[in-house]
Structures are given as C-alpha cells and as structure tokens.
Amino acid sequence: MNYFVIGDDDAVLGFELVGVPGVRAVTAEEAEAAFNQALASRETGIIIITEEAAALIRPLVDRYLFSEKFPLIVEIPGSRGIGKERKDLRTLVNEAIGIKL
C-alpha cells in the first residue's frame, strides 16, 4: 500500500523528502487531475491532501470520504490553513483510521 500527497509546494516537497510521491495542485483542475492520478494506481492506499486542495474538489473528496471504502483520504493543514483547528499529522491519521499510531 502506497501513499500519495496532493497540495501546495511545501506539503508535496515535505512528503517527497521521506519518499512519498505527490503532485502540486493550486487550481481545481490541477487538484482533480492529481486526485484521479492517485486513484488510477491500485497501489495507492492513502491519499494525503491539504485542506486547500480538498476544498477545490470538495464533492469528489467527500465521495471518497463518505461512500467509498478505499483509498483512505486524510486531509491535512496546508501552509496557509483555512481556519480549522490545528492538529498534528499523527492525530489526523489516528482519527482517520481509528487506531492510535
């Protein structure tokens, strides 16, 4: 099972430094293309997407959050955030999968 990250330059670069592939997406078209690219690989088990990128394609993200079993979608704060309560990545993943890491 592989990870895939979608978001701003900082998020993508940070995850790429630890070996997680990703795509920069700042427009709705880029975000949708990146999301579809992640879905195209059967090996992608977890898609990490920044709040800003997810907001651009909210209906698509929500479809996978609420009705699909796979892959797991984890929204993380981007470098600018959009006003949600700040949580660290470990907490976000723990909440998403229901297991304490």
What does this structure look like?
The protein is of the alpha/beta class and 101 residues long. The chain has one domain (2-97): ATPase, V1 complex, subunit F (Rossmann fold, 3-Layer(aba) Sandwich). Helix content is 45%, strand content 21%. The protein is built from 5 helices and 4 strands, in the order βαβαβααβα. It has helices at 9-16, 28-40, 51-56, 58-66, 89-97, and strands at 2-7, 22-24, 44-50, 72-76. Strands 2-1-3-4 form a 4-stranded parallel sheet, sandwiched between helices. The protein is globular and about 35 Å long.
Task: Lay out the secondary structure.
Layout: E1 2-7, H1 9-16, E2 22-24, H2 28-40, E3 44-50, H3 51-56, H4 58-66, E4 72-76, H5 89-97
Parallel strand pairs: 1-2, 1-3, 3-4
Tag the structure with descriptive keywords.
single chain; 101 residues; alpha/beta; Rossmann fold; four-stranded parallel sheet; 4 strands; globular
